Amino acid sequence: MFDIFDKCVEESKKHVFRTQEELEARLGELQREMKAAGIPTMVVFEGWSASGKGSRISRLIYHLDPRGFKVHTMTKPSDEEKRYPVMHRYWQKLPSEGNIAIFDRSWYRCFDFVEGKKSKNDEELKIYNILDFESQLTAEGYLLVKIFLHISADEQKKRFNKLKSVKSTAWRIKKPDIKQNENYVKVYRMFCEMLDRTNTPNAPWHVVNTADGDAATAQVFSIVIEAMEQALEQKSRGLAINPAVFPVSAPVKPQVSVSLKDIDLAAAVADRSYKKRLKALQEQLFMLQNELYRRRIPLVIAYEGWDAAGKGGNIKRVAQALDPRGYEVIPISAPTEEERSHHFLWRFWRVLPKNGHTAIFDRSWYGRVMVERIEGFITEERKQQAYDEINRFEYSLTQFGTIVIKFWLHIDSDEQLVRFTARQNTPSKQWKITDEDWRNRAKWSEYEAAVDEMIAKTNTPNAPWIIIESNDKKYARLRTLEELIAIIEKRLSENDGMPPDYRS
């Protein structure tokens, strides 16, 4: 069992002794080396109230190039932030490759130990979200340094009294701080449990006793420096920076799926009935969108499919049904330089819809296991990890209450050739066909195998794949609308709103 006092003693004996001047000089050198190596670093400061987080951070950043770091002070989430999944605001603050993010409090602030006990399910979900977030980052090569600052109950009370005695600092002591000191023993046990459950090989906790401020500062410098040195050594040897990945078991298991070759594409719809049916379905979807907004349920629709499968026209018919104030269509192309310098899911977390709103993705995070896989941009190991990361990403969304709907628009090779040729021979549509489209077509069998594996490994109960037969575009549009309506109606019939709110 994790014990804060024991860890303080253990931590104080671990680090090589260097003078403060040596530590400060080495920190500046390492920042430049980490920048050159492209290793993103996150330093998290947690601990007791009045344990000196601000002082330790100030001393640390004084010796860093301000162009390469950013400090994030995490207060309680705003009303706007509460409209997104719990980890959304932390994904926004990820540093790019070679840069440093320093957190004065972090995702651990979801543990509030003085405002009443939450249910066991709430606590388990918090732990899951934290372990998942940290394992996703470290798997991608982020260095995550977590520091817990410790003081005794007497020392905390002494610091509170000192702060309260000066008018300019009295405001810093809040009622929860006082309650924390009054319930010190109970909170101590809770902190021990939290640290124990989140002390993983890829993101271990370092506990520093701050009774002696100068000694604590030297220890913090040593912790950060030694973590950076180890990361640089690992990368120079071609090894993973972190010793472990995904310390939590997978939350969902894929269900049975079918091969694309087994899909019957003969389905079609008569032109005379298409417009009438389309209008009726769009009107129905519009009413459901209003109900989703009323109940504050977010909706994510991800479109994937073959080139020329009709994604654009299909999305257009869905969007026509929606109130434009409540949805956004998000086209996804190759990642930009900035996006490549972050975790591959970063750009998708940034554009998630808030509750009650809809996001329609024209291509999605599945490019990781299709285009990037076939073009050789990721290794086999990272591809397999990506399946797990995607399942976890979608699980996090659905745990928040998001409806996740994934469409694969399927056509056969002959139909694609017909459409490619028509585009090439029609001046107004030639912009739709590129050399890359023809190059991808030559890899049809590779893509087919990749799609089969993708669906098999990410076809989960909470976010299943729906294969839309799209040789007939009009049939595909109607079927898509029907599936959307059926899934939304099922969700609305199951409950009358969001899951229990476990955010703080």
Strand order of the largest sheet: 2-3-1-4-5
Please give the CATH class of the largest domain: Alpha Beta
The chain-level structural class is alpha/beta
Beta-strand percentage?
5-15%
User: How much helix, percentage-wise, in residues?
Assistant: 40-55%
Q: What is the architecture of the largest domain at the second tier of CATH?
A: 3-Layer(aba) Sandwich
Q: What is the H level of CATH, i.e. the homologous superfamily of the largest domain? A: P-loop containing nucleotide triphosphate hydrolases
- Elements, N to C (H/E): HHEHEHEHEHHHHEHHEHEHHEHHEHHHEH
Q: How many structural domains in the coordinates?
A: 2
What CATH calls the topology of the largest domain is Rossmann fold
General description of the model:
The protein has helices at 4-12, 20-37, 53-61, 88-91, 120-139, 153-164, 167-170, 175-182, 184-197, 213-236, 271-294, 311-319, 337-340, 346-349, 371-374, 380-400, 413-425, 435-441, 444-458, 473-494, and strands at residues 41-47, 69-73, 100-104, 143-150, 205-209, 299-305, 327-331, 358-362, 403-410, 465-469. It has 504 residues and is of the alpha/beta class. The chain has two domains: 4-236, P-loop containing nucleotide triphosphate hydrolases (Rossmann fold), CATH 3.40.50; 265-494, 3-Layer(aba) Sandwich (Rossmann fold). The longest helix has 24 residues, at 213-236. The two termini are 26 Å apart. Residues 497-504 have low confidence and may be disordered.
